[in-house]
Structures are given as C-alpha cells and as structure tokens.
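**User:**
If convenient, please work through this fold.
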Amino acid sequence: MKSKEPAPVAPATGHRAEQPHRATAWPEARAAAARAGTAAGAGREPRRLPLGQALGHVLAEPLRALTDLPSFDTSAMDGWAVAGQGPWTVRADTSVLAGHAPTAALTDGEAIRIATGAPVPPGTTAVIRTEHSRTEGPLLHALRDVVSRQDIRPRGQECRSGDELLPAGTAVTPVVLGLAAAAGYDELPVPPRPRVEVLVLGDELLTAGLPHAGLIRDALGPMLGPWLEALGAEVLGTRRIGDDAEELYAAVTGSAADVVVTTGGTAAGPVDHLHRVLDKAGATLLVDGVKVRPGHPMLLASLGGGRHLVGLPGNPLAAVSGLLTLAEPLLAALAGTSPTGGRGPAPVLDEVHGHPHDTRLVPVVRRGDHLVALHYNGPAMLRGIAVADGMAVVPPGGARSGQELDVLDLPWPPTSGAVPAQGACFT
C-alpha cells in the first residue's frame, strides 16, 4: 500500500489562538538554551586533532602528562657539573650538550662543562654557573658556596606522568599547545564543532544593489555566518528561502546541521510560517518568545535526535539579541565551552531607559570603568552595535546613572574607541 504524502503545512490564519504566546523571562531563556546544548552535546564523541589544528578549540578531556617533566635531571644553567667537594679536576676536551645522551658518571672531585637543558651525568652533586666559577689550569674553583643539587632541574619537577595538567573545557591557546607538546602529545581530544545552517527567510530581501520598490537589502545573510563561526560553529552554509511554508519545511527537515538558525517568521503574521512548520515537523518548543527587547519573538525548538532550531526575529538588532540570548549559550554548551567571556559588570555612565516589564539589551562601549549606551539601538538598526563592545543587560524599568550592568561581550576584540568622531552614536 502506498504511504501517504505528508500533509501540507496549514495556511496562515494571522493569529495563533491554538498556541497562546507564553514568553520566557530572559535569564531563564538563556539557561534553557544552555541546558539544551549540554544534553545534546553529552553523547557527541570527541575528535582528535593534530596540535597544529587544535588552536581555538577546547579540551574534551583532561590533559594528563604522558611523561615526567622534565623526563630526566637536566642542567638549569650553562656551567659545570661537579661531583663532591672542590676544587674539581676538569675533564679535558669534553662537554655535555642538550640533545645528547648523558656522559659517563662523574667521580668525586671531577667536573665537566655542561649546557642548559643537557642531562646531568650520574654522580653529579650540583651545577655551578659559568659566572660563579674560574679555572686555573686543570682545576675548577667555585666563587660562591656550592649547595647540593643547585641549578639542577630534577626529573618530575613540573609534573609526574599521569598528573592532570589542565581540566576538560580549557581553551586551547598557543601556550596549551606548547604544554601538550612538552607532555608528549601529538594530538588533542576536542569536542566536534556544532554544525550550523542559516536559513534567511523573506520575499522582500535583496542580495545586491540598492533597496527599491518595497525590497530591502539582506543584512543578516552576510552577518550571521561569520558571527556563528566566531562562536565556534562550523557553518555549513547560508540559504535564502522565500515566504513559502513548504520550502521552509523541506529545508528544516532536510538539513544535516546540528543547529538550524532561521531569520524572520517567528511571529504570527500572514507569512510567518515557522511555528506551523515546526508543528508539522514534530518539533518541541523549548522557548517560545522571550521577555526581552529587542527580539521578543525569538524561539528555540528541539527537532529531535539532538538537533535544534533557533528562530531569530527578522529585524537585524533583534536578531543579534536572539543570537546572544539563545544561539550563543546553545552552541557553547554543545561545544563544551562557556558563553563568550566578558570583563564583568560595570557601572553605566548615564541613565538608560528600560522596558516596563521586559529585559532590554542595549549596545554599549566601555569608557574607562564605565559603560556608555549607544544611540541607534532600535530593532532594525545595526549602526550602534557596529561600534559596540557588547550589549548591556538593562533590567525592567531601566537603570540609573552609576548602576552596575552585566554586559554580553561580542566574540571579537573590543572597538577600543572606534566610535565615529562626531559622537553621533552616543545616546
């Protein structure tokens, strides 16, 4: 018997009486996104990357030393390895060099020239720095008292084989690469980067040229992919889809991404198809609207199988709000990291107006110890966020001058004062 074709997506009705809007408080929405990412990331097997490719990832497992460091007693200085009490008879025409096997054992009263990092010969009592010694013929004299084991780095001084050097979740920096190499690693275990596909929705969007005849330029298509990559995602691509529910359904259900990010269609207008598409796809809404401005119609849905969809509003700054509220904590948890680290809360220089009931996210720059709110912070505007250091979290009712606000820092270096000279971006 022939299987039935999937039912078409129900046409728009202009309202969603069957699914009443229940917005989530802003902190709870971010927590829900982080929980979803943690649950989905728990079953993902780590990858092993060569050291040269692991920079910018995080450790999927603790970094444990594969050897003692140092792995043998080494000289900490250029000078002389000596045995017993001085003066010492110098072994003629021979030296101990780094990268060479240890020389024969020293006997009491004997000295041999040694280089920094070289293995100390068996029987060595101490190393005397070159500047703390003098020679007279075949004899070496110390110019200072000699303490047993001085200037010798003993085997295992930094760590013993099996010691935990760094915990899982540590960002792989150039120094971490160096430590891993010293500890014996050729590869590092890292969580796989979350795969993301961006679906830009709307018949009204142009990809080139000037706006005209009711059409506007697509600002989100060029912006979202690089932003998501900065958050640690592997972006599979950015696709543009018209206001067609069936096309959107096929794109969402056919995507190979761990996270599908859509723009627009999250409200209840005549061409806002996303809720009906998710319902047809059997998705579970985890967050359906957030008490935040701009961006309150954003949503987060589970598509099953550890896959998720983040629905961003279509207005550019509202979409940025959705990125910071839902996409960033979701992706960070999937990748085993924390959301973008900030420099902590700071007092706002002047009063910042808030929403009566919702959290408000406002582009700000840091000026000394204070935050300065930027103008051009409407839902459709990018002029303010383009020069911002981050988005300040303004509680319902607003913030008074001097009040400390948390800041969602952006995943790239701060502007360091790159605000237009006329200051037109400041409120």
